[in-house]
Amino acid sequence: MRKLMLTAVIGLMASPALAEDGTIGLSVSTLNNPFFVTLRDGAQEAAGRLGLDLVVVDAQDSVSKQVSDIEDLVTRDVQVLIVNPTDSDAVMPAVRGAIEAGIPVVAVDRGVNSVELASFVVSDNAAGGVLAGTFICEQIGSEGSVVELEGIPGVSATRDRGAGFNEAIAESCPDVEVVARQTANFNRAEGLSVMENILVAQPEIDALFAHNDEMALGALQAVESSGRDILVVGFDATDDAVGAVEECRMGATVAQQPDQLGAQAMEIASEIIADGPPDAQVDVFVDLRLVTNDACD
Amino acid sequence: MSQGPNKERNGSGGGTPRPLFDWGTLLARFGLVLALLALIVVLSVMSDRFLSWNNIVNILRQISINAIIAFGMTVVIIGRGIDLSVGSLVALTGVIGASIAVLGVPERGLEPTFLQLAYPWLAMGAMLLIGTLLGLWNGAFVAYAGIAPFIVTLAGLTMFRGGALAYTEGRPISGMPEAIYQIGNGEILWLPTPIWIMLIFLAVSYFLLRHTSLGRSIYAIGGNEEAARLSGIPVRRVKLFTYAFCGFAAALAAIILTSRVNSGQPSAGVAFELDAIAAVVVGGTSLFGGRGGVFGTLVGALIIGVINNGMNLLDVPSFYQQIVKGGVILAALLIERIVAKRR
After folding, report:
1. pLDDT at B18
2. pTM passes above 0.95
3. What's the gap in Å between the CA of A94 and the closest CA on chain B?
4. Which among A3, A15, A69 has CB closest to B316?
5. Which of A285, B115, B197, B307 is 20 to 30 A off residue A43, Cα-Cα?
């Protein structure tokens, strides 16, 4: 008994000082993934800069834990709740509870369905597509043929990345032609087989843009075994893809900036504290950046 | 799981007469409740939000899912079994129930038809039925094939999770009808519905264990299986029942969870079996069977829930939260051990 109490007390003493009112709550889906750790770090850094108190709770990828976490943040009366959902549907009842308790909610990276958010901070996939398109134009010059490997049809990432890419090609190098446009469903094996077919069909290809790195890496395999020289650009900056860029096998990959996602969410939260919640949901698009290797020719 | 001498656990009375007042007995009886009260006092001092009505309701609602599963687990463990499959069972019954429930969502702007109004109830009935059947499946292998409960339910853990993933192709099922939403998020008489369900199920489990011959048989089997058999208890059927009961409990919890997260999640319920076992052992039920009860389990679930909530209120970083939670479980077992030796 005494030991039980002691353990509990020691555990509680380990916590930082008592939090007072005026804090911002951040419920993050998991801190077991570097992406979300960086997102949290970005939020914490911004909190320091803005002079705000930030409370972070980690749902450990469990939808039920996230619901409890959000309820606990509501109990603490946080002034703004930032949610990075484990699942856009599953957090809805808890987020609705927070809103009913008068707490404005900012979603980050993933949205929340069926509720009125104050703001949604998300990576600008279209801008990422533009980055990829512009890079390809710069590399291959004003004329040439490019291939686009599309993601799962109809998914927002596919739509936005594709739109940005095609817009950039049309603007920066209108004489470059997209000679083939096929889906490989974000899948590496499909990227390989689809690209094999395209290589047979197209005698001249200068560059390839894939809507994610998995397809890009599959296609890269096809390109390398064909022996042809084609510039491959992917999306997501996975470890494999960044490695391929470092080895000069891949031209570039587009990276999200999770630290910026966290920081932007905090900026919005601080605006809400200063000026009150906006009348309608404000969508904030965070820029992406291109991972390239200047050492490659 | 079977180390150390624990003969004193199985004896019912006998030996030297106890004095009227001794600390060991007192601690054994009320130690848990005292620990919970102490925890509440400490947390109330450290956070002025802790002891608010809203937060108390919060905690009770949050523990309802774990407590319900843990009541089922208590029954299995008293019968000297264990059920590791409950988390996966929650996921599988949840996604099946959700897939039935979504059929009852009327098209936008339309009034639901009679059949659509029936779907949510059909879904919940199906979940309880499937949960019970899967419990029977586990129980059959334990009771009739004689395979160790740990192994049978470990297989269940993998299979049911696989079933949930296969059934949904890994994607969550969303868009629950209002009736399902209300089960986990609504209120009856100022208290959230999940708390009522938990309390009713507590009463049912308590009645079963303490006031039926079936309950007495479960204790007898947990205490000494051979003796139970010799005294004419249908050991196999009773064991089968305990697993079915636990499966029913998991399905009941799945109904609340499906509603609380407004969707059927094939990845839900990971490690729920461990949370439930933790509540059971913190609540003073012996992992060796034959001793314990659901009130202890409720207190165990409350202790864990209060610690989770308290640490969130006090801003303890999540990784440290896990360490503290593990420490509390260990401490509870240590105390149980000391108390058991004193008697």
Report:
1. 53
2. no
3. 8
4. A15
5. B307
